[in-house]
Every structure is written in C-alpha cells, then in structure tokens.
Amino acid sequence: MNMSLESMLALSIILPLLAAIGIVATGSKPNLREAVTLGTSVALLYLVINLYQGIKQGTNISVLWWELLPGLQISFSVEPLGMLFALIASFLWLITTVYAIGYMRSHHEQNQTRFYACFAIAISSVMGITFADNLFTLFIFYEILTLSTYPLVTHSGTEAAKKGGRVYLGLLLSTSIAFFLLAIISTWFVAGTLDFKPGGVFDSTVNTTVAGIILVLFVFGIGKAAIMPFHRWLPAAMVAPTPVSALLHAVAVVKAGVFTVLKICIFIFGIDLLAVLPSTQFLLYLAGASILLASLVAMRQDNLKARLAYSTVSQLGYITLGALLATSSGIIGSSMHIATHAFGKITLFFCAGAILVAAHKSKISEMRGLGLQMPITMAAFFIASLSIIGVPPAGGTWSKWFLLMGTMETEQFILMAILMISSLLNIAYLLPIPFHAFFSGDKTLSSGAAKIKEAPLPSLIALCITTVGCVILFVYPQPLHELAKAILAT
Questions:
Q1: Which among 75, 186, 314, 366 has most CB atoms closer than 10 A?
Q2: Strand (E) positions, 51-99?
Q3: What is the distance between the alpha carbons of residues 78 and 291, in angstroms, rounded to a whole number?
C-alpha cells in the first residue's frame, strides 16, 4: 500500500511515541526492547528520506491536526530548514541507538527501559519542532522536549544528577515562560498571526523598537540555544549518560534551540527587517561574547565532557550569530553548521563515552598515552576535532567559511576576528587531547595490570560512522549546501 507524503509527515511524529509504548511493553526482554528501538529508528529515517525526496520534487506537504481557535492551530509542514534538521536528527537517532546498546550494556546502567522510552519521546518532540508550521505548535513540542529529557539528565539517580536536573529544568522552563511565551504572545498581538511565512510576518509599518524588543525576548527565551547568560543548563546536564550527552545535548536539544532561533529569524522577522532592528547589533555581540567566553572556559576544564559542553555553548553561538547577520551567507553558514557541528560533536561525545567504558577515565590529564591502547577512538576524536575547528578534511570547514563570509559582507570585522580567535582556541583545547594520547611519553598506561581495549563493538561502529560523516560533509557538501540555499529561496 502506497502511503501519502502527508501520512508520512504525521507518522514521523507519531511513530517514536508508539515506539516508546513498545519499549515499555518489552522492557523485561532487553533484546526485543532494543530491536523495537532500532526498528523504529530505521523506519523514521525511511519516512524522513521520503519527505526529502518529496520536497526536492517541489511537492507541498502539510498536515492540520487541530484548530484550537481561528489562526491558532497545531499543524505541520515540510520546508528546507526543517528538512535539514529532520535528516540529521533521524539519522543520528539510529546511530546513537547502536552506540547506546554497546554503552548501556557494558556500563551496566540501571533503568535502561526508561532510558530508551524517554529517548523515543524526545525524538518525537524533535520531529514536532522540526515540522512545526507555526509558533504555537513549535512551543508545545519545545516544552515536551524539555520535560521528556529531564528523566534522561537525572538517569543515574545520584545527588549530582538530581542537582544537574534541577538546573536543567529550572533554566529551560523559566526562560520559556518568562521570555519565549511572552515573545509569542507579543507576536500575536503585533502581527496578528503565529504562522511561519517566507519574508516574515511583520508588515512595513511595524515599529522597529517594538519588533527589536520581541527579538530580544525570543533569543533569551529560547534557552536551548544556550546563549550566555542562560547557558548553565548545558554543562549541568553533562551528568547524564554519554548517549544522552551525545544526541540530546550535542544534537537534539541544543540544535532544537538554534534551529528555533534560525527559523524565527527567517520566517517571523525576515532577514530584511532583521537587518534594521536596533537590537540586532546588541544580540550579535552577545553571541560573539558567548563564542569567545565559552571557548576560554572550555580550556580550563579537565573533565572531558565538561570541556565538550562549553565547546558546544561556543559553537551554538556561531549558529545564532549567523542567523542574526541577516545575510544569505550567514543563513547558509548557520544552516550548514547545524549539520557539521552535529556530526563533529556527537563523535567527540561518543569518544568520551568509549574512553569511560573501556578505560574508566573522564579526566583529560589521565588520558596521556591512551592512543596506544585505543587508536580507533583517539583517531576519531582527532578527525572530529578538525571539524569543530573548521579545517580540512572535515565538514566544519564549509560552514565556518560561509559564516566568515557573512561577517565580511556586513563589515562586522570585530565579529570576524572573534570567529577566527575562537577557532584558534578550539585548536588549543581540542588537539592536545589526541596529541598527548598518541605521543605522550607517559608509560604508566602501558605497564598497567590490565591492557585497555577499545569500546564495545556497537559503540565503536557508531563512532566510526559519524567520523566518516565528518569527512563526507567536507568531500561532498553539495546536498547540504543545496538545502541551505533552498531556505533562502522560500
């Protein structure tokens, strides 16, 4: 039976929810439970690829679920920016599931059924955010994502996990209610609609001061974008198991944040209005400060996951900055950076988890010489680091190139300098890790009682796939670039 593209769109949101029910039902049989997770992730990727083929052919794909009031409805549609995010999230859910099976079993984690079930609900909410046709729909799924990931952050049940969970939930909910919801209500009153529209929803008579205030409320309210000073939830969430850190805090949660910022800049304000708002310059420098300060803080972290967390805060600033530049190069760079950073950072977190499982080490100072025992993991770490830095042969090269072009087009030379300095800082806090792992003279690891081996095979396969992805995005960036350009064409 041939399924319509509209049905596929609806099913892409519903299917992970059905998987969560199946995971709970098969919880007493780990092999069956994980088969449900894997099978659903493959099916979701199949649906998303079909939707991608549909929009490539110019098909208009939209679904209306429920109209609460005239103009206030839960509805979904497929457009290039959402498609880009959906492809990344669905593919990396599959890869992270493979990784998680090896990690969770080898680490003998408790409550694995709850872990996989909440994971599935979180992916459902990501799909809802991705395809949301208006701010009302997006806000609902944005909050579901926050609530569904809280049990993942507090998974271990330790006091540190509970404390991290309180910071996580407190910051994300408070910014949503205090700023994001207020910005949505303000948009409704000023523009008369919450629908995403090419070119934006505000007409030429809008007061730029009012629109500028609404923009500030949006940027501060989207706490998942981790713009300073609302970034503390991200390092706090690093108490979660590595698979959670990898997908939810290197891809799904944080990317839901910057995706929302990008979508609002393009489809609520429009780049023409964005360029003349008085608050845009302030927010650009705030994003620049986040990039620079987070990089400096990352250099001081000895815990590997903490260093990667602050690196993520910095890299998210790149995407926010590109969106606020309000140029074609900035939008293309930001869109591409969602993908290139996702592959680079998820690989780094996969490597951090592999080191923890195989070597029981989490501090960078203890990883000297580790490359001799874990050469595949540390080689993957090196390649992923190149992507985050933005140098060949890794995909981050192209997204950072377009972002730099955006700063040149707008003559934002201070911001251009910040991007370049930040890349140098990326080198300083990332490359010494694989360098010392391979070339350190410390022989204590080699003479240990038990020789350290690589992580379990599923985890190793997953990190190799994402590492190859980093290189493919450099060698063959055309599909990603075409999707990014199609965003502007809308």
A1: 314
A2: 62-69, 72-77
A3: 31
**184 pLDDT higher than 50:** yes
What pTM did the predictor assign?
A: 0.93
Task: Give the CA distances from residue 155 to residues 123, 152, 256, 298, in Å, rounded to whole numbers and listed in that order.
Answer: 17, 5, 21, 25
Do residues 281 and 415 make contact, with C-beta atoms less than 8 angstroms apart?
no
Q: Cβ(332)–Cβ(477) under 8 Å? A: no
Q: Following DSSP, what letter does each residue of 209-239 receive, concatenated?
A: HHHHHHHHHHHHH-GGG--TTS-THHHHGGG
Total count of residues recorded for the chain? 490
CA-based end-to-end distance of the chain = 32
Q: Which two tokens stand for residue 127?
A: 């799909």
Q: Which residues pair with 195 in a beta bridge?
A: 134
Q: Residue 405 corresponds to which amino acid?
A: M
Coil vs helix vs strand at 301? coil
By three-state DSSP, how is residue 409 classified? helix
User: Which tens digits make up the pLDDT trace of 121-140?
Assistant: 999 999 999 999 999 999 99
Q: Are 334 and 419 in contact (CB under 8 A)?
A: no
DSSP, residue by residue, 241-269: -HHHHHHIIIIIHHHHHHHHHHHHIIIII
> Alpha-carbon distance 104 to 66, whole Å?
39
Can you give the pLDDT at residue 419?
95
Alpha carbon distance 104, 111 (integer Å): 10
**Contact of 245 with 106, CB cutoff 8 Å:** no
pLDDT-based confidence at residue 441 (cuts at 50, 70, 90) = low
Torsion of CA 250, 219, 396, 357, to 10 degrees: -10
d(C-alpha 59, C-alpha 424), whole Å: 44
For residue 282, the SS3 value is helix
Beta bridge partners of 69: 72
Whole-angstrom Cα distance, residue 109 to residue 30? 12
Token pair for 34: 């994980």
